[in-house]
Amino acid sequence: MEHEKCYIYAPPESNSEERPSKRVRTSKLQSQPQLTERLSTYREVWAQQEERIQQTLENADSVTQENIVKFVAASTTSEGEPQASIPTGLIVAGPSIASHGLFFSRLGQNIRSETDSAYAVLTSGECPNLKTLLKCLVKKITSLKDDGDEHDDLINSGFSARNGPKLLDFDLGHVQMWQDKNETQSIVVAIQDSEAFDTAVLVELVDTVHSWLDRLPFILLFGIATSAENFEDRMSGKSLRYLDGQKFDVTQSDVIIEKLFSVTVANADARLRIGPTLSHRLLDRQKDHVQNVQDFVDGLKYAHMSHFYASYPSIFLRKGSTYTDLPSEAFEAVRNLPSFRRWIETLLQDGNASEVRTLLQSDQSLHEEIAKHIKLGQTALTSLSQAAILFHNIRESLQISPPFRLSTIWTRAAAGDLSGSPLYRETMLSLKKASSDKLKQLLISMERLNMEGSSIDWAKFNQNLLKLVQNSDGSGPLRSQDDVRNDSVRTTVIAQKVLLSKHKAALSEQDKAYSELVAQLHDEIDRYMTSAFIDPQAMFLSEIFMYDLKSPHVEVFQPKPRFAIERALATPHDYLGCSCCDRNRTEEEGVLAATQPATAILYQLFLESGTLINASDLWSAFEAIVEEGSEESDPKTSALIQRALAELRYLGLVKPSRKKTDHIAKIMWKGL
Amino acid sequence: MAIPKRKREENENLETDATPRKLRAQAPDEESANEPEIQTPSRRERGQIAPIAATPKSILKKPGIFNDAIVSTPKSTRKLVFETPSKSTNGTPAIVRNADRSARRKSNRRLLELTINGVGSDEEDLGEEDALAEQILSDEEERTGINVAIPEEPTVPDTPSKRGRGRPKGSGKNQKLRKQRSPTPPQELPPHEEYFWQNRPGGTKTSNNTLSSQNLLNHDEYFQAMQSYTERHEPEMDLLVELHSRAYDQWLFELEEGFNLCLYGYGSKRPITDAFTKHIYERYLTLSPYKGTRKTPKIIVINGYAPNTSLKDILAMIASIVIPTNKKVPNQPLALLNSILNHLTETPPPLPVPVVINSIDSPYLRKSPTPSMLATLAAHSHIKLISTADTPNFPLLWDIGLRTQSKFLFHDATTFAPYDAEIDTVETVNELLGRSGRRIGGRDGIGFVLRSLPENARSLFRILVTEQLALLFMDNANDFDDAPATPKNKKVAATKNVPADTVQGVEYRVLYHKAVEEFVCSSEVGFRTLLKEFHDHQMIESRKDAMGTERLWVPFRQEELESLAEDLSSDMM
């Protein structure tokens, strides 16, 4: 089996082996109590999130998609009269190439469902030259509505007799025949990654398509990651004349991710939240590496999965679970949470010994407390999210620079370091200084947000403001007393010394009233924010309603395979945990223990050598280490060296060198 | 063969001589003078078989200070010892260096004493003198090892005892060993510094030792040896696999949630995929379409490492399971993939189809369309891909697009298990050391093939071998010119070898013209045909050099080529 290329798995036949495996499974089930319940809770929670995500995604680029579909539909109407140029859509989809595939497949669905068109996506990978491109195009289009069989016939046998010479498989004549049969309104060819195509291929494609335009209703769509100008520069003037282009801008993925973040993580109503560390990592990864909506969603999903799979107390997130449903282990698990311990300690400090005793002893009372606290925690997080949104809104409407994203604000708030931070103070100060026209915008947008949690009566403030503005007779907007423009600096020279003194300009009646209003608003918002911006991690049961472990997440999405292999070879003890190879235990620091696996020894010798390695010397060094004490060279040692060498080669650490006989070249350095 | 052997014997003697001296020189306080003498005979005995093994071993036995030296062993290979004397002969600089060196030795000894007498001796004890000593030491770094490492004889006249034992330069092996002990190259460099250090110009000086062919095992010997070998870490390795096995349920859950798996880490991951496949199999047996029926779940296992595994094989295998047999499937991979995916979308199977790919990063699956098509396959929700990757840089296979498409979750599955199935050890090593000629059974194999070929082919092969030999001789001509000047010789050879070896093999054109001259063939087509036969039997190898000219050569080393040429000409005549 092991040397076959592919095969279908057949279990080993001996029955005796089945028993131990079964035993293993039962023991595993015990270690994962109520897994099914937790997983069903997970599915419930995730389904909710997923729905939001889907909605956001659909809304995100629906406008662009609609426009493109409209464009396609409009281009098809001019049938009959010969077209001078190919209708072309230039889709500026931005640099996040990973989400382009998704975009184009969705676009394809829309185009197919709303217009009577054939749609084929071409990627640069499939089309190294014009011939393969056309072949691909022919295949994709002709196999769209036919069965594979018919398509094969079409290519292989049929029509050759009727139409004289047999058509080659990259001849667009196939498409024409197919078009005669199906009579679609248009044939949409989407070039997903136009930048990756060879320019010559694109030019030739345009030429070819143009020459067929009188017979086939082609429409071209180019996906562009850079800019339409750049695309234009690449094409020759002649082919540009064949194109009749229209530009479409796609929502950039970072904007979409920001939206996704606000509907999933920072959403007011989420049963499980992703903690600040993890969301920070997710966002950073998006920013620095992937820029990919799908990846962000996967990350979120995996976080949800890990929480419900690995953490037993997550069972308490289940809706409608009663005390009787839960075994005592669940409560035991809660009692082991660090936040439980912290809570108990604070209770003890407050002198509630009896309460602590009941909590420790009675599962039922603990259950009540848990239910209460989970609700508390969730409300606290909800109000935190709302406050973050409000905060973001204030900054946005007052146009405070630098602009902060909601995700940044939320992560900082959830980490508990927003309240009291310079960012917070700056924002509140700008609020105080805001003039009436800006404040008006703020209040309007606040009213639109329609937050339930905050006790601030936006409408009332708005009315008061309106009244003030109407009463004011001046032309400019009202200014508060903290506005810099109401300050004036007075310079006095007394005994050759310059004294600077600040003076408040005399405030008009309206301005005074306005200042009062602003101060009142400021105080209320400040009060609300300080109450909302708590540190969620300090709360009891924060482990349950907030998932913030980076451990499985990072390894699973950003693995360091090279590091893992290097570590395994450089310090095999880390993995094997054997008593013989522990470097720390042997006092002789840095000795190559002969007990290590052969490859590890050879690897460490390899690490110490230069770019060119003499295999013979490596061999003898290895023998010196392994054969300590033995009198003659053992074929076993030779075999081990050979195996280790072969493994180094297989892992791509060395390669043959022709510089000198029996030398190998090093091609990988540890830790780089 | 005879000459190197004698040399080696010489080396062995030298080496046994050398070792005690070193010990004495290094730790005069510790070692009594006669102790090395006791050791010598035994070592000489052993030296006959594994000359190199002997020396470092003695050091290994020593506790304490020497161990530091051993760590750095291979590093030292980089410096060729015999370069020192050649420089010293230049004249004046030698004296300066010499003075330097004795200072260094002094300082070194002082440091050694310090460490031996009291490791606990505190920093305050390290006065100016010690600082100076250290500075001197670090100044010249590994230029020459600490007193141990340098072949001092020619330059150190003040110790007559050492001079008496002087050995000629160029006795490669033991010199190398001595160097191994030098703790000179800087230790604990950050990775990038180490890279530049090891790549510094002139930094790659290695000895000219060659591996005797007897050392390399052939397939039979290798498997025989491995059969009797028992892994020392068997229990730990089993434990690793057991640890990974605890994650099987988690992995299943991840698969169910629409992700695919990719396992990485050192060691063959086949035991894990095997066990996990079994796990899936058993799980599937308990699920609806298979439960209570005689139907068995079909899990596709693909061994990417198997030579010439192609995407077509994989897709055909999947198609054979997914698409009912009465339906015609297209032949082209792309079309096949599309029809598989279409079929899966239209008539989804009750349970997703698990596909296990061992070594998804194998060279056979790396080429351009394969990764992207595998990603397309993996992206389908009814395909569950469980793959393993062996090389450290495998994520480079996929750009973000592909990576997102394939929805991989990565798990570290280090097993330390030998890559028995993945690697053909003997073959890989032969290829690594440029001895792929061994593949066809060496000289005998070639003779066997040649006998079955027409005379023209034999003549062509003879021409190739003689041409190649002629080239080799031309390369070495300079080295042999001043052969009698033994001490310098090696160094010269070392420097000359580099340009010489870069032009390896016979130019295609040259060979063709020679062949035409000797009436071996009359046209290039005939020439090609003859060469193809050799290629098929892997008797010759070809490559384009930097200038783009094709070069051909017989993958043997000089001695073997010589005897081959002899055989061929005797056959002919």
Automatic annotation (TrEMBL), chain A:
<keyword id="KW-0539">Nucleus</keyword>
<dbReference type="InterPro" id="IPR045667">
    <property type="entry name" value="ORC3_N"/>
</dbReference>
<comment type="similarity">
    <text>Belongs to the ORC3 family.</text>
</comment>
<dbReference type="Pfam" id="PF07034">
    <property type="entry name" value="ORC3_N"/>
</dbReference>
<protein>
    <recommendedName>
        <fullName>Origin recognition complex subunit 3</fullName>
    </recommendedName>
</protein>
<dbReference type="GO" id="GO:0031261">
    <property type="term" value="C:DNA replication preinitiation complex"/>
</dbReference>
<dbReference type="GO" id="GO:0003688">
    <property type="term" value="F:DNA replication origin binding"/>
</dbReference>
<dbReference type="InterPro" id="IPR040855">
    <property type="entry name" value="ORC_WH_C"/>
</dbReference>
<feature type="domain" description="Origin recognition complex subunit 3 winged helix C-terminal">
    <location>
        <begin position="562"/>
        <end position="637"/>
    </location>
</feature>
<keyword id="KW-0238">DNA-binding</keyword>
<feature type="domain" description="Origin recognition complex subunit 3 N-terminal">
    <location>
        <begin position="4"/>
        <end position="314"/>
    </location>
</feature>
<dbReference type="GO" id="GO:0005664">
    <property type="term" value="C:nuclear origin of replication recognition complex"/>
</dbReference>
<dbReference type="InterPro" id="IPR020795">
    <property type="entry name" value="ORC3"/>
</dbReference>
<dbReference type="Pfam" id="PF18137">
    <property type="entry name" value="WHD_ORC"/>
</dbReference>
<feature type="region of interest" description="Disordered">
    <location>
        <begin position="1"/>
        <end position="33"/>
    </location>
</feature>
<dbReference type="GO" id="GO:0006270">
    <property type="term" value="P:DNA replication initiation"/>
</dbReference>
<dbReference type="GO" id="GO:0005656">
    <property type="term" value="C:nuclear pre-replicative complex"/>
</dbReference>
<keyword id="KW-0235">DNA replication</keyword>
TrEMBL record, chain B:
<feature type="region of interest" description="Disordered">
    <location>
        <begin position="137"/>
        <end position="212"/>
    </location>
</feature>
<feature type="domain" description="Origin recognition complex subunit 2 RecA-like">
    <location>
        <begin position="237"/>
        <end position="413"/>
    </location>
</feature>
<dbReference type="InterPro" id="IPR056772">
    <property type="entry name" value="RecA-like_ORC2"/>
</dbReference>
<dbReference type="Pfam" id="PF24882">
    <property type="entry name" value="WHD_ORC2"/>
</dbReference>
<dbReference type="Pfam" id="PF04084">
    <property type="entry name" value="RecA-like_ORC2"/>
</dbReference>
<comment type="similarity">
    <text>Belongs to the ORC2 family.</text>
</comment>
<comment type="function">
    <text>Component of the origin recognition complex (ORC) that binds origins of replication. DNA-binding is ATP-dependent. ORC is required to assemble the pre-replication complex necessary to initiate DNA replication.</text>
</comment>
<dbReference type="InterPro" id="IPR007220">
    <property type="entry name" value="ORC2"/>
</dbReference>
<dbReference type="InterPro" id="IPR056773">
    <property type="entry name" value="WHD_ORC2"/>
</dbReference>
<keyword id="KW-0235">DNA replication</keyword>
<feature type="domain" description="Origin recognition complex subunit 2 winged-helix">
    <location>
        <begin position="503"/>
        <end position="560"/>
    </location>
</feature>
<dbReference type="GO" id="GO:0003688">
    <property type="term" value="F:DNA replication origin binding"/>
</dbReference>
<comment type="subunit">
    <text>Component of the origin recognition complex (ORC).</text>
</comment>
<dbReference type="GO" id="GO:0006260">
    <property type="term" value="P:DNA replication"/>
</dbReference>
<feature type="region of interest" description="Disordered">
    <location>
        <begin position="82"/>
        <end position="105"/>
    </location>
</feature>
<protein>
    <recommendedName>
        <fullName>Origin recognition complex subunit 2</fullName>
    </recommendedName>
</protein>
<feature type="region of interest" description="Disordered">
    <location>
        <begin position="1"/>
        <end position="56"/>
    </location>
</feature>
<keyword id="KW-0539">Nucleus</keyword>
<dbReference type="GO" id="GO:0005664">
    <property type="term" value="C:nuclear origin of replication recognition complex"/>
</dbReference>
<feature type="compositionally biased region" description="Basic residues">
    <location>
        <begin position="162"/>
        <end position="181"/>
    </location>
</feature>
